[in-house]
Amino acid sequence: MLQARPVKDPRPCCPDVIGVIGNTPLVELKRLSPKEGVRLFAKLEFYNPTGSVKDRVARSMIERAEQEGAIQPGQHILEPTSGNTGISLGLICRLKGYPLTVVMPENVTAERSELLRMYGAEIVYSEGAKGSNGAVEVALEMAEKDSRFYMPYQYGNQANPDAHYYGTAEEIIEELGEVTAFVAGLGTGGTLMGNGRRLKEHDPSTKIVAAEPLQGEDVQGLRSLDDGFIPPIIDISLLDRKILVSNRDGIVWTQKLFYEEGIFAGVSSGAIASVAARIANELDEGNVVFVVADGGDKYMSAGLWTKSVDELEAVDSTVWW
Amino acid sequence: MATVKIPPVLRPSVSGMSEVQVEGGTVGEVLRGLAGEHPETQDQLFSTAGELNRYVNVYVNDEDVRVQEGLDTDVGPGDTVVILPAMAGGD
């Protein structure tokens, strides 16, 4: 006979959906852990309201700008993004009354544009061949020309890593205590910097590991190396390892997460999981934590879970993360 | 000999090749060897002080040398050295 499950520490009722952001589950992955004695844990950020870790960052940037008096409802927000930050800003700006324009590479998956339109955001597409560099370039030009725009600028805003320093990392410390290695994707650098600083304060021996996308040649459209870009919030000295992952490996591990552990995650999370498993394999004991940055729903149109990696199209010309 | 993978942005400086074989026991030796063979890459790979250009990322196999020993990072004969431009990450 079924019995009611006891409710442990129920969350208080939130005044709105923004209050639900954070406090995501940490789940052990016993099937993917390569060794006895080494425990692999996934922090499931798709439990946030728009389904990604960027809800934490968008809330942090907007609320800090409000606290500093830099914006008030009606102010037009502008942000370069390959999708998730834009979608998170879409939710928060809609609820708080800020019009939003996002600049996004034209070669992201269709779901991202659709979600942004649902939240009422205006989309400006940048040249796909320039990847996220192109989106940053266009947004910076727009902000310079038009003073109506307030650009949170996730690549250079301390409120981005702070969302993790005061949020994600605190939750992990509370949930697990000891963290031997922490693995996250390198995008803006916010997740790695904020968690890295807080986790190393808690235990200086914690290894901070970046999983970095090996972008396909079709999205490396720079005219010269001096057109490169390093997000200002990144302090590379905080990293112990920085490991490249191909889109192909990312997709194979996205499928493993789904089929072996029942975790429906996006492609960056597969790439991050592959690095976490590699780090776990190098250890004799300890806890390896990695961040599942978003869920798989925004990638459904790519057929990742119904086709083998060899059957997929545009593996190297799509901006997956 | 190490295999050096050349990104599209550098290929015009190495006769259009996408990879080249270069001798050297460290990243510095390999990249200086590449610049010796293909002088146009010198100013793109190195600053005037001889350091790695800020916007160039170099990986031995798949690990970034900046979080290892930089230009002093060891390179074995079968290793792959990947050169990539520093690009904005996503999301």
Please outline what is shown here.
The complex is a heterodimer of chains A (321) and B (91). By secondary structure, chain A is of the alpha/beta class. Chain A has helices at residues 54-67, 84-96, 110-118, 131-145, 159-176, 190-202, 247-261, 267-282; strands at 26-28, 38-44, 76-80, 100-105, 122-126, 149-150, 181-185, 207-214, 241-246, 286-292.
Overview of this structure, please?
The complex is a heterodimer of chains A (321) and B (91). Chain A folds into two domains: 17-51 and 163-302, Rossmann fold; 54-150, 3-Layer(aba) Sandwich (Rossmann fold), CATH 3.40.50. The radius of gyration of chain A is 19 Å and the shape is globular. Chain A has 321 residues and is α/β, with parallel strands linked by helices. Chain A is built from eight helices and ten strands. Helix content of chain A is 35%, strand content 17%. Chain A has helices at residues 54-67, 84-96, 110-118, 131-145, 159-176, 190-202, 247-261, 267-282, and strands at residues 26-28, 38-44, 76-80, 100-105, 122-126, 149-150, 181-185, 207-214, 241-246, 286-292. The radius of gyration of chain B is 12 Å and the shape is globular. Chain B is of the alpha+beta class. Chain B has a single domain, classed as Beta-grasp domain (Ubiquitin-like (UB roll)), CATH 3.10.20. Chain B has two helices and five strands. In chain B, strands 2-1-5-3-4 form a five-stranded mixed β-sheet, covered by helices on one side. The model of chain B has no long low-confidence stretch (mean pLDDT 94). The longest helix of chain B has 11 residues, at 27-37. Chain B starts with a strand and ends in a 6-residue tail after the last strand. Chains A and B meet through helix 4, strand 8 and strand 9 of A and strand 4 and strand 5 of B.
